[in-house]
Amino acid sequence: MIPEIGHFALILAFMIAIAQSVSLLIGFNRADARFAAFGGRASIVIFCLAGLAFSCLMFAYATSDFSVANVFENSHSAKPFIYKLTGTWGNHEGSMLLWVLILALFSAVLAMQARAAPVKLHMLTLGVQAMIITAFIAFVLFTSNPFERLFPTPMNGEGLNPLLQDPGLAIHPPFLYLGYVGFSIPFSFAVAGLVLGRVDSVWGRLVRPWALIAWVFLTIGIALGAWWAYYELGWGGWWAWDPVENASFMPWLAGTALIHTVRVVERRDAMKGWASLLAITTFSLSLVGTFLVRSGVLTSVHAFAVDPTRGVFILTILMAAIGGSLTVYAVRASTLSATGRFEPVSREGALVVNNALLVAACATVFVGTFYPLFIDVLSGDKISVGAPYFNLIFTKIAALTLAIAAIGTLLAWKRANLRTVLRSMAPIAAAALAAGVIVLVIAERERVAGAFAVMLVVWLAGGALIDIIGRTKLFRVPLKDSLARARGLPGAAWGAVIAHSGLALFAFGAAGASLWNAEHVALMAEGDSAEISGYEVTLTSVEQFRGPNYEAERASFMARRGADEFEISGERRFYPIRGMETSEAAIRAHRVGDLYVSFGANQTGRGWPVRLYYKPFVGCLWWGAALTALGGLVAFTDRGRKPARLRRRRHASPAGMKVAPV
After folding, report:
1. Which run of H or of E encompasses 413?
2. What is the Cα–Cα distance from 623 to 250, expressed in whole angstroms?
3. What is the C-alpha separation between 116 and 113, in angstroms, rounded?
4. Which of 67, 203, 314, 389 lies 20 to 30 Å from 585 when distance is taken between CA atoms?
5. pTM, to two decimals
């Protein structure tokens, strides 16, 4: 009965979403606030119904109701309870229902902020959002019903993919979806603003928090996925340029350009066309990622193996969203006239250059991801584009972007003196050069690439430091005055400093883990030893044991490096229900690097194949990503300065239109 309640709630939500879409469009055309009030209330009702549907599916998983086909295909009675719950979104149908729930959540929050926006802009934005929700609920109901029953009821389920039975993968998808779906609000604002010809400072102030919070969630989601790949897959890496990884990275790049551009719209009433196009592009790339994962056009450790016909439905949504929004942009973009003017040498000018570089980086990833698919469709040839392509092109663009970002934060709005800025950066340039020389002297290999990487990191972090010193007048006024200035700085300023520092730390970790890593492979029996980067690693024992729903071998290693001696252990797990193996690497995290050990099966009887890695500064990846997300969160808390016309009066309704509260 519970699954039927969830199914009925989803059907009811679909009907209300259709009515909401129609009523908001009618209300917009007739300037009737009664339709706006209904649309706002409908958003809240749809969220409650979507929440009820998702709760019913989660209840079916928690109680192991194998009469539900989705539960039978993705759960098992022996599975730990926490993974029964997370299995709700560890499959195609459940993940799409989570997508709908998050869409409804954001729409409900948007509806409750009706008084913060001009009435017609808010109404049309909510109407576009309602059409998106309608399309995705239709997708779930007609192609991916998570409440479909099985008769007769099986005695047990087929179990969840073992790779998904992990804490990292339990929380990674929700954060990723919060980022993907969060960008639907800037998309809807962009379409509404273009239709109304109203992309201005008010529009920028409304869009910026949504873009920032979506970007923060997406940053966390991508970082969690990289962390999971590092410790779970046993290959010693954290990013493989997998097509599905790229699918999440592309909207992150476009979203990074968007959050900077919206700030210019808010502050200077300029770059309106850029902001609108980036809002459309970012959410469109989120839809492209959804299409890649669920269309069946590629095979990936992250992808759901589903019926390709579902991809046709998503492709239709994608074409309607992208085609419709770009058509509106082509027709209405010429009406967006900028009132703010700026010189090429200014903060706005630096943002234009950085946006162009970010778009170029995004295009590089897009081509590398989709080119093999295009060739397969056109000629049937199977090719692959791997890390060498991305490392050759993307890293160069990314390095130039970070180098310019360090200077851009120091430039004044509207017009700046580049000579003065470069003079203030002279100490940082000297420190970067000194750091590069040190790397050239002490590094054993990859000296030139490592020197450039470290110089870039020092340059970017130093730019953030110089920015905050300049804003607080540190060393030029008494310390208490500097502290007072620091407390008075807006959240956007602190957010930029923290995020840029996080990116510098992340870049340092990426350079260390890729340029100076060491790898050694050995066949080891119990008591054998191997050496790597000064560590002597001894295989002390291998024992077999049984987990809740798997059989495993646990290998214990004793590692020594000088006076430092410690024990680490890793596992190989076999899940009989799925017939799959997973790896749990033995990792000793240290502030200067990780000792990473994984082992394979003893198939010859002579020993276990053991891979040893030393990953210098890899911990900077995770701390850098966390710091970057924190910077976005701090910037999100800055609500900005309310434009003068909003301080003089509330957003007036169109003639004859009375505002009704939600």
Report:
1. none
2. 22
3. 6
4. 389
5. 0.91
